[in-house]
Amino acid sequence: MYWSKGISHVLLCNVTQRVSFWFVVTDPSKNHTLPAVEIQSAIRMNRNRINNAFFLNDQTLEFLKIPSTLAPPTDPSVPIWIIIFSVIFCIVIVAVLLLILSGIRQRRRKSKGASEVDGTEDKCENMITIENGIPCDPLDTKGGHINDAFMTEDERLTPL
Amino acid sequence: MEPGQEPAAGMACAGGAEPCGDSCGDERPAWGNKMQYLLSCIGFAVGLGNIWRFPYLCQTYGGGAFLIPYLIALVLEGIPVFYIELAIGQRLRRGSIGVWTAISPYLGGVGLGCLTVSFLVSLYYNTVLTWVLWYLLNSFQYPLPWSSCPLDLNRTGLEAECQASGPVSYFWYRQTLNITADISDNGSIQWPLLACLAASWAVVYLCVIRGIESTGKAIYFTALFPYLVLTIFLIRGLTLPGAVKGLIYLFTPDVQILQNPRVWLDAATQIFFSLSLAFGGHIAFASYNPPGNNCEKDAVTIALVNSMTSLYASIAVFSVLGFKAANDHGRCLDRNILHLINAFDFPEQSISRDDYAAVLMNLNTTQPERVARLPLEVCHLDDFLDKSASGTGLAFIVFTEAILHMPGAPGWAVLFFGMLFTLGLSSMFGNMESIITPLLDMGVMSRSVPKEVLTGLVCLLCFLSAICFMFQSGNYWLEVFDNYAAPLNLIILAFFEVVGVTYVYGMCRFSDDIACMTGRQPGLYWRLTWKVVSPLLLLTIFVAYIAVLAWTPLSYRAWNTQYARFPSRQEKSYPGWVQAMCVLLCFLPSLWVPAVALVQRLAKRRPKQDAWQDSLWGLSPPEILNLAPAIAATRDPKYHTQTWPFLRPLLSASLGGSHVQWLKDNPDHKRVLGALSSPMTRGPTSPGGANQQLKSQGLRGERAET
């Protein structure tokens, strides 16, 4: 019945930029207004319910002198970096141990093999030493013949 | 081969020849294949500097115009010195200390200097990797921890420091470094960073545990992964809005800037440090090569790949930075538009970014006083594009902020920091090899101790020394090391390297060695740069660098929350003791060179005791025999021509006529004494060239008969 009268019967006064109002809360039994501090802490605790009642949020429904409490970001119980760090560290330590163990095993196998083979062959036979780009004398003892390098002496030396 | 030249050079180096540097029967480790060697050198050369130093220099010094001094420096200084390192390492088959001791005992200090510089650099380089690892570990979450500020104590607003500086800077300075306001204020150890330091040294140890055997396998991943990520970033970056504008702005050449001598100095130093010269790492890598490897082609290839990577990386980086600048510019406009809408009661979203300029001009003509009272910022895209950063600032602040705005931010962060970690890791391999190879060659530990123990001890020592960077003031100390420990020393050492090889070792002998290895003598370009251009250039850089260092006051920029103009960093000068440390770091490693030379000189002047010892360095006959292999290893002909006349009667005297049998029983001495007996046809002290020629031909004639 009232709505059919239309908007012309609604009077506005004290128009501000936004919809705003002051309010006090009274206690009918004690016949006095509740102190502002109590109201502020009550509103703070139930901010979410009040917002939802108006379908508004902290940015659009502002209570003066009541700064809104921001929601902290969700913190997992164990920081994620510790989890990944422990995974990587464990993998690295295991790999290092594996490499060290395989190295020890290799060395044991080699020393067992070496003690079986007799002596050390003369590996120098086939080496050609190089001085200034010129192959040095390959002093090999193939056939056990006497090496001329030590027979003809003085002609080859630089006179001092 | 021209007729006048020494014909022996062409006939030398039969396949599989082993030069005198190695004693018989000692198997030097070798690369698994050529690819491992190339990738290791490329990985060593391509490092963090290619990503965060070269783009900054390009941007500061006139975009594309910077490439001109860069390429000139590469051709005149970078490639020649690099080729010398590879060739001398491959020829003498020793690490840095062994090589320089073999060239001349007076130059042994160069090797020790290289070792010290490598040690100092590996300390702080791995600390940067620790920070990268920390960021990498924190990238596996959404939202990223540096995207928003934490709340303050009563949760009514954001943390004050964070609100002033921005969440990205806050995460870097406060939550990662927890930095103090002054370098003398050490603060406490950052335990999360210490854990990451242990992890990164463990990873380095895992990869270098068996020397090149293990790095050769790891390098396939660590050297190639960054290229994959760079390509992904390039493709993604080029499709972002604002990227192309950024690329055009940043690469547009400004040729006027070439008149500033600072540009040339920075180009020369950049190419020098980018190729990681004078660390001894390339010498160490090349020493494991077969002697017949073509090191000329390797040197040119690796240097060009390094420079191409710098260019490739700067395109990727600039496109992302262009996107960031466009983003920041857009938000600046949005803030101004909001001011206008609020002040003049325009409807929401009625002014778009493109209309802003026109609307502002309109309002300025109609209601200038109201417009003047508004806190409007000046928004020019070029101002945002000019905001450049290098070093850790680029990686941890600018780039991380750019990543925040890319869709799928955690994935991009993981890729980016993974790339930085593998880039730094492959450079660390070179650093560690340049420490470990000389120690192995010097025989610091006996042969029975396995190599794993030596590498483990080196890594442990480096880890314990690097703990000093884990304090709250660690970042300031890292800047001290970065600015003063490496640059000057490397230039000095490189100068001694070039001069040592070209003048002390002898250009002719070196050319023959190269002909031996690559199959032809080095051309005019190489000879000219080695003899004249590179030493002169290095000397000029050295003098210019000292001038620049002396001119700039020793100061640093501190992160001080109490500073009036926070979040700008406060310029503070170093306290006296820190300044003394800077000067010490600048020269200490290079002091090995004169120190060792002095020690060698004093050792030669030891008092003589009798005729034998008169001419042979004060040593007794048994000592001489024992030293015979070492004598042969030294390349100075003067030693050899003096030794033989004393050794021959020595042998007859001590062994009687059966010295031939003795020689058969002592293979080492046999080979070495043969080396000592062959005539030297070149060298500064051998007289009578013609005589030498005849003698050598006679020698070859005798050998042909037997």
UniProtKB/TrEMBL annotation, chain A:
The terms describing its cellular component in GO are: extracellular exosome; plasma membrane
Q: Where is it mainly found?
A: membrane
Keyword Transmembrane helix included in the entry's annotation: yes
Q: Which residues cross the membrane?
A: 78-101
Please list the residue ranges annotated as the Collectrin-like domain. 1-160
Keywords assigned by UniProt, alphabetized: Cell membrane, Glycoprotein, Membrane, Phosphoprotein, Signal, Transmembrane, Transmembrane helix
Quote the subcellular location field of this record. Answer: Cell membrane
Q: Tell me the Gene Ontology biological-process terms attached to this UniProt entry.
A: positive regulation of amino acid transport
Q: How does it sit in the membrane?
A: Single-pass type I membrane protein
Protein name, per record: Collectrin
UniProtKB/TrEMBL annotation, chain B:
> Binding positions for Na(+)?
43, 45-46, 50, 274, 306, 423, 427
Q: Pfam families given for it?
A: SNF
Q: Where is the composition biased (Polar residues)?
A: 678-696
- Compartments, as annotated in UniProt: Membrane
Which residue ranges does the record annotate as region Disordered? Answer: 673-706
Q: Which GO terms describe its molecular function?
A: metal ion binding; symporter activity
Q: How does it sit in the membrane?
A: Multi-pass membrane protein
The UniProt entry, under PROSITE patterns, shows: NA_NEUROTRAN_SYMP_1, NA_NEUROTRAN_SYMP_2, NA_NEUROTRAN_SYMP_3
Q: Name one GO cellular component term.
A: plasma membrane
Q: What keywords is this UniProt entry annotated with?
A: Glycoprotein, Membrane, Metal-binding, Sodium, Symport, Transmembrane, Transmembrane helix, Transport
Principal location class = membrane
| Record GO biological process | amino acid transport; sodium ion transmembrane transport
Record-annotated membrane-spanning stretches: 37-55, 67-88, 109-137, 191-212, 224-251, 271-288, 300-321, 412-432, 453-472, 484-507, 528-554, 574-599
Record-stated family? Belongs to the sodium:neurotransmitter symporter (SNF) (TC 2.A.22) family.
Q: What is this protein called?
A: Transporter
Q: What is the lineage of its organism?
A: Eukaryota, Metazoa, Chordata, Craniata, Vertebrata
